[in-house]
């Protein structure tokens, strides 16, 4: 599978249950984490997610303001009223941000 370059949007499905199986009855917020090498994920920011009609959340990647490079990213959720109640990190995604995008082709003709 090829690496996604310059993705536009993060999207995810929110958990509906706690680790003990009980339903989540409180508001969640989300943290973005980046992984350097094989180390642990480091929280870089909290992001708001907007709920779409298909029950998935999304947030623009541009809001994260990443410089060009390759990234391994994951999300975790936490209780808005008690940020110490935090989930494990999600499965990671890998992508690249590149400013090396070629110009459009020149001198297109039909004969």
Topology:
Elements: E1 4-5, E2 9-13, E3 28-35, E4 41-47, E5 50-51, E6 56-60, E7 69-79, E8 82-86, E9 93-97
Parallel strand pairs: 1-9
Antiparallel strand pairs: 2-6, 3-4, 3-7, 5-6, 7-8, 7-9
Protein traits:
0% helix; mainly beta; 111 residues; Immunoglobulin-like; single chain; 9 strands; 6-stranded mixed sheet; 45% strand; 3-stranded antiparallel sheet
Outline of the structure:
The protein is mainly β. The chain has strands at 4-5, 9-13, 28-35, 41-47, 50-51, 56-60, 69-79, 82-86, 93-97.
Describe the overall structure.
- The chain is mainly beta and 111 residues long.
- It has a single domain, classed as Immunoglobulin-like, CATH 2.60.40.
- It has no helices and 9 strands.
- The strands form 2 sheets. Strands 1, 3, 4, 7, 8 and 9 form a 6-stranded mixed sheet that branches.
- β7 and β8 (82-86) form a beta hairpin.
- 6% of the residues are buried.
Number of domains: 1
Overall shape: it is elongated
* H and E string: EEEEEEEEE
Give the strand tally: 9
């Amino acid at each position: 599978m090829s690496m996604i370059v310059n993705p536009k949007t993060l999207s995810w499905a929110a958990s509906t249950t706690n680790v003990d199986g009980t339903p989540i009855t409180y508001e969640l917020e989300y943290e973005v984490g980046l992984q350097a090498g094989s180390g642990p994920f480091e929280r870089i920011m909290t992001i708001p997610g907007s709920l779409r009609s298909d029950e998935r959340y999304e947030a623009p990647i541009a809001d994260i303001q990443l410089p060009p490079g390759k990234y391994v990213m994951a999300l975790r959720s936490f209780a808005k009223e008690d940020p110490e109640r935090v989930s494990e990190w999600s499965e990671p995604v890998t992508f690249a941000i590149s400013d090396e995008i070629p110009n459009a082709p020149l001198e297109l003709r039909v004969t």
